[in-house]
C-alpha cells in the first residue's frame, strides 16, 4: 500500500512533534523534586523565615544561619529539628547559638519532607527531594520520650 505524499508529510510532522515532546519531558523524579522545592519554599517562608530569614542567613547572634550549617548534611536531623524543635546549644560557622527553637507539631510528614527538600536543595548539596518515607523513619527514630 502506497500512502499519498500529504499523508506521509503529516505522519512525519506528528512523529517529529512526538519525539520533541519526549525529549523535553522530565522524569517523575525531577518533577517531584521541583514540586517539593516550590512547596517547601512556601512552607519555609511561613514557618522558618521569620527567624532564619528568607535567604537562610539567620539573625545576627539570635538565630543560626542555615547557609553553611553542617546540619545540612544530615536530612534526618533537619526533619527532627523541624518537627520537635531544639533546646541545645548549636555551633554554626564557628558561632554558638543557645536560643531554643520551638517545635512544629502541626506540620505533617509531607510538609516536613518538603521543607527538608527545600533547604537541602537551596543551601545544601542535594539535588533531589526527600521522600516522605525517609522523614517518617527519621521522626520515629528521634521522637522524644
Question: Describe it for me?
Answer:
By secondary structure, the protein is mainly alpha-helical. The mean pLDDT is 88. Helix content is 54%, strand content 4%. The chain has a two-stranded antiparallel sheet with strand order 1-2. It contains 6 helices and 2 strands. It is globular, with a radius of gyration of 22 Å. It has one domain: Cytochrome c-like domain (Cytochrome Bc1 Complex, Chain D, domain 2), CATH 1.10.760. Helix 2 packs across helix 5, helix 4 packs across helix 6 and helix 5 packs across helix 6. A hairpin with a 2-residue loop joins strand 1 and strand 2.
**Count of folded domains:** 1
Give the biggest sheet: 2 strands, antiparallel
- Beta-strand share of residues: under 5%
Structural class: mainly alpha
**CATH superfamily grouping:** Cytochrome c-like domain
Euclidean distance between termini CA atoms: 76 Å
Global mean pLDDT: 88
What is the name of the CATH architecture? Orthogonal Bundle
Topology order in helix (H) and strand (E) letters: HHHHEEHH
Q: Which word captures the global form?
A: globular
Low-pLDDT parts are none
How much helix is in the residues?
40-55%
CATH fold-level assignment = Cytochrome Bc1 Complex, Chain D, domain 2
β-strand number: 2
The radius of gyration computed from the alpha-carbon positions, rounded to a whole number of angstroms, is 22 Å
Name the strands of the widest sheet in spatial order.
1-2
Total of helices = 6
In the CATH scheme, the class would be Mainly Alpha
Amino acid at each position: 500500500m502506497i500512502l499519498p505524499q500529504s499523508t506521509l508529510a503529516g505522519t512525519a510532522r506528528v512523529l517529529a512533534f512526538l519525539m520533541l515532546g519526549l525529549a523535553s519531558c522530565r522524569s517523575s523524579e525531577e518533577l517531584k523534586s521541583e514540586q517539593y522545592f516550590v512547596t517547601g519554599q512556601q512552607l519555609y517562608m511561613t514557618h522558618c523565615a521569620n527567624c532564619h530569614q528568607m535567604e537562610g542567613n539567620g539573625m545576627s547572634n539570635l538565630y543560626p544561619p542555615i547557609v553553611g550549617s553542617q546540619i545540612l548534611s544530615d536530612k534526618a536531623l533537619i526533619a527532627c529539628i523541624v518537627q520537635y524543635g531544639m533546646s541545645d546549644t548549636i555551633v554554626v560557622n564557628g558561632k554558638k547559638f543557645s536560643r531554643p527553637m520551638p517545635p512544629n507539631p502541626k506540620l505533617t510528614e509531607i510538609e516536613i519532607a518538603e521543607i527538608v527538600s527545600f533547604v537541602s536543595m537551596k543551601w545544601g548539596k542535594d539535588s533531589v527531594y526527600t521522600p516522605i518515607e525517609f522523614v517518617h523513619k527519621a521522626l520515629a527514630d528521634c521522637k522524644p520520650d
